[in-house]
């Protein structure tokens, strides 16, 4: 199916306390099938959830949360779901695996960070897959904007499931127009800390040209998502379970 023919709007989960929560279900697969709804959700940081949001997530069967942020981000913007009864909360770093010497020379080149994360954060992504495979109910994973670290984990999940490349790209790009207020807050924070808005804004887009090089890198250097995850310790049974959950 061509992305132009597909309406993604029904995949968003309307929450008062987030801007960018959506279900990975409902994406076309081969043979007319769709990815399964109600299994994995991606999001921006859930730090302002209301009572109605908690009730909605409970109705959706949420049991597992993976927070992909750095420790200082957890302190700055605490998640409403950390420590919540009935929710298994897990902290899995991505950027923390990128050593200063191995990271991009240009600290505002977000595409270079994606490639570095794939090269150095495989153990983090592998741990996330183990958690998702064993989740008893629906699982939600997030970073700050639900764009970069979240986007890379979503890429791995959707490729393992067999979602066509153009729809993986389209799913990533949905974030661009959803996070305007968050983007402005992050730009203002950067400016207060002496970082130019023009430079910092390079980190905050979510257009196709930002994820396409990561997909190419994943395939050309690492042999695709399944091979990449196996190389970093994900058992075949774990991959099969994640694929089963997302495609049944």
Topology:
Layout: E1 22-23, E2 40-43, H1 51-59, E3 62-67, H2 71-76, E4 88-91, H3 110-120, H4 122-134, E5 138-142, H5 149-161, H6 165-173, H7 180-192, H8 197-200, H9 208-222, H10 225-231, H11 236-247
Parallel strand pairs: 2-5, 3-4, 3-5
Antiparallel strand pairs: 1-2
Notes on the protein architecture:
α4 crosses α11 and α5 packs antiparallel against α6. By secondary structure, this protein is of the alpha/beta class. It has one domain: Protein tyrosine phosphatase superfamily (Protein-Tyrosine Phosphatase, Chain A). It contains eleven helices and five strands. About 45% of the residues lie in helices and about 10% in strands.
- Reported CATH architecture: Alpha-Beta Complex
Order of helices and strands: EEHEHEHHEHHHHHHH
Number of helices: 11
Task: Please report which band the strand proportion falls in: under 5%, 5-15%, 15-25%, 25-35%, 35-45% or over 45%.
Answer: 5-15%
Q: What is the CATH fold-level name? A: Protein-Tyrosine Phosphatase, Chain A
| Overall domain count | 1
Structural class: alpha/beta
The span between the termini is 19 Å
- Point out poorly predicted stretches: none
Strand order of the largest sheet: 1-2-5-3-4
CATH top-level class = Alpha Beta
Estimate percent helicity: 40-55%
- Characterize the overall form: globular
CATH superfamily: Protein tyrosine phosphatase superfamily
Return Rg in Å. 17 Å
User: Count of DSSP E strands?
Assistant: 5
Q: What's the main sheet like?
A: 5 strands, mixed
Oligomer: single chain
Average pLDDT, rounded to a whole number, is 94
